[in-house]
Specification:
Blueprint: E1 5-10, H1 15-24, E2 30-36, H2 45-48, E3 60-61, E4 75-78, H3 84-94, E5 121-124, H4 134-141, H5 148-151, E6 155-156, H6 159-168, E7 171-173, H7 177-191, E8 201-206, H8 221-224, E9 229-230, H9 239-250, E10 257-262, E11 269-276, H10 283-293, E12 300-302, E13 320-326, E14 332-339, H11 343-357
Parallel strand pairs: 1-2, 1-4, 2-3, 4-5, 5-7, 6-7, 8-10, 12-13
Antiparallel strand pairs: 8-11, 9-10, 11-14, 13-14
Protein name: N-acetyl-gamma-glutamyl-phosphate reductase
Pfam families: Semialdhyde_dh, Semialdhyde_dhC_1
Family: Belongs to the NAGSA dehydrogenase family. Type 1 subfamily.
């Protein structure tokens, strides 16, 4: 590709926005021309994130101040809060003439959607287009979906599982971080009939950045440091997303037991998953199938027998590391999946999707090795 893609990042002042920028400034086919942030509007990006200074990036502006279509974007990364994303994206893709920023900039009489012309490709990092059933979305996110006509056009953006659909997509919904780690481990095994769809138990742990950058008492240093605690017990919003994709793989509804935990580290995610094997199947069979399925997948590392995935070994990379072990309980196996929640679990995967959508090698701009120590 000779011409660089003109890229916009909406919601650039959060952790996912920061990691998008960190990765995109080294992407040979991307040029960042738009950065938005509501609370930080008017500030330079280096005043918000000093590590991103010196790259000649545009200042942060409010969404309502974007001069559409003058920015002439090729692709937009939408790192906005749930519910806000669907209204913004509805305007971006269809030029719907209504105020899409009612909650964020209620005082503004102008309509962002009125100023948008043409079509750009959109990669959404929120949960707004991940669930195929909009009624399920309403049940888990507490409000009716505002862009139901777009939901049927959205592609679930887990490249290793839906590569061809992503390549053709105009609206890609990036999976959540917990679902990414779980689905890369489980979907190939369910598709091949190597494990039972029943009695899947996922014990998940994530760094504090997974909770976002907004001020929350539960995320203060004193609350998080030297401790680990579960949250969303029995009712976490990633549960229906995981069940949706496992159900597709199994060809029938799947219900999981899933418990996430907050651990005192900045980034990283590890899931220990307990499964029942089909008759005659061993842990070695699961590993062999992973190796076959992911042989050409540049970002999935299947560990050799006895190899143990860890968050330290994937930190800062777009890699998912998978391991499998025999359980002491007959007929069961233990899967371990590790990712960086901000990279493969969010921003890196979003850029991987962008590469596929524009016909680039999917590894472009994403081949940084994990950081150690």
């Amino acid at each position: 590709m000779d011409k660089k893609l003109r890229v916009g990042v909406l919601g650039a002042s959060g952790y996912t926005g920061a990691d998008l920028i960190r990765l995109l400034v080294c992407h040979p086919n991307a040029e960042i021309v738009l950065l938005t942030a509501e609370r930080k509007a008017g500030q330079s990006i280096e005043s918000v994130f000093p590590h991103l200074g010196g790259y000649g990036l545009p200042d942060l502006i409010s969404l309502d101040d974007v001069e559409w279509p003058a920015v002439e974007l090729d692709v937009v990364f939408c790192a906005l809060p749930h519910a806000t994303s669907q209204e913004v994206i509805k305007g971006l893709l269809h030029s719907v003439k209504h105020s899409i920023l009612e909650e964020l900039v209620a005082e503004s009489p102008s309509s962002l959607a009125d100023r948008i012309q043409g079509e750009v490709k959109v990669i959404d990092l929120s949960a707004d287009f991940r669930l195929r059933n909009t009624e399920t979305y309403g049940e888990w996110y507490g409000r009716a979906h505002q862009a139901t006509e777009l939901q049927t056009k959205a592609v679930y953006g887990l490249p290793e599982l839906y590569r061809e659909a992503v390549e053709k997509g105009a609206l890609v919904a990036c999976p959540g971080c917990y679902p990414t780690a779980a689905l890369l481990a489980l979907v190939p095994l369910l598709r091949a009939g190597l494990i039972e769809a029943e009695d899947i138990i996922i014990d998940a742990k994530s760094g504090v950045s997974g909770a976002g950058r907004s001020l929350k008492e539960s995320n203060l240093f004193v609350e998080v440091a030297e401790a680990m605690h579960p949250y969303g017990v029995g009712h976490h919003r990633h549960m229906p997303e995981i069940e949706q994709e496992l159900g597709v793989a199994a060809g029938k509804p799947v219900t999981i037991s899933f418990t996430p935990h907050l651990v005192p580290m900045n980034r990283g995610e590890l899931e220990t998953i307990y499964v029942r094997l089909k008759d005659g199947v061993s842990a070695d069979d699961l590993r062999a199938h992973w190796m076959d399925v992911y042989d050409l997948a540049p970002f999935v590392q299947v560990m050799e027998k006895g190899g143990m995935p860890s968050t330290r070994a994937v930190r800062g990379s777009n890699r998912c590391s998978l391991g499998v072990f025999e359980d002491r309980m007959p007929g069961r196996a233990i899967l371990v999946s590790a990712i960086d929640n901000l990279v493969k679990g969010s921003s890196g995967q979003a850029i991987q999707n962008m590469n596929l959508m524009f016909g680039l090698d999917e590894t472009t701009g994403l081949m940084q090795a994990p950081m150690f120590p």
